[in-house]
Structures are given as C-alpha cells and as structure tokens.
Amino acid sequence: MKLVPVLLNDDVKAIAEASACYAIEHNHKVTIAIVDSGGHLLHLNRLEDTAPFTVDMATAKAKTAALTKRETGFYEDLVLKGRLSFLGMPLEGIMEGGFPIIIEEQVVGAIGVSGSTSQIDAKIANVALNNYQHKAF
C-alpha cells in the first residue's frame, strides 16, 4: 500500500488567504477555487465585484490541474500552437491559471484563479503556492 499526503483544512486556508490577499492588494477581481486531488471543491472565494462566470472557470481550472497533474497553461499553449484537438478534451479549464498543489511529489489538489488575464490569474495562484510551500516545509 502506498500512503499519500492530503490537503488539510489549514493548508487550504493558508493557500486561500495568500491568494486572496495578493489579489486584493493588487486590485484584481478574481475568483479562487481550491480542489482536492479528485477535483472536488474544498474552497471557493469570489472577491467583491468579480463577474459571476468566473466561479465556473476558476473551478474548472482547478479541477483540470488536479486531474491532469499539470498546469492548465500547458493546454492553452498547445491550443495556441495549433493543437485544436485539445479543445475537445472532456475538461473545461484549459486556460492558464490552474496549478496542481504538490506535497512530497504527490498531487494533493489544485488551485484555479479566474477573472483577470490568464497571466495575472496564474501570478495570483503562483504567489499563493510559493507562500504555502515556504510555510509548509
């Protein structure tokens, strides 16, 4: 049997707080979704004045990152380079802004951010993950 780490509630809170603080500090109106390794929603925060559609996109980005164990920007790059077949994937969040959360080389969940440009969404998620990893280890 193989034992794998899991996200605890305190982990989710730390990642969520770091991402929301960065977004608010830089006046980015985004939704932040955090899922477990199976893509199941653990946390959702639609910041004030953020468009409602961003809830679905942030959740989709997080789910895609968790289930594929890749940053969602990977798929966006493939599509932009002409691999249009990836548009038919059964996953919806194939735009930059979704990142797996990795503990001890295991994907334990993912974060997805939506509401700004893909690059800013990715920056918000990366800031949160970098902050979390420095505290966790």
Automatic annotation (TrEMBL):
Cited Pfam families: HbpS-like
Alphabetized InterPro entries for the sequence: GlcG_carb_metab_protein (IPR052517), PduO/GlcC-like (IPR005624), PduO/GlcC-like_sf (IPR038084)
Phylogenetic classification of the source organism: Bacteria, Pseudomonadati, Pseudomonadota, Gammaproteobacteria, Oceanospirillales
Name of the protein this chain belongs to: Heme-binding protein
Gene3D superfamilies named in the record: Haem-degrading domain (3.30.450.150)
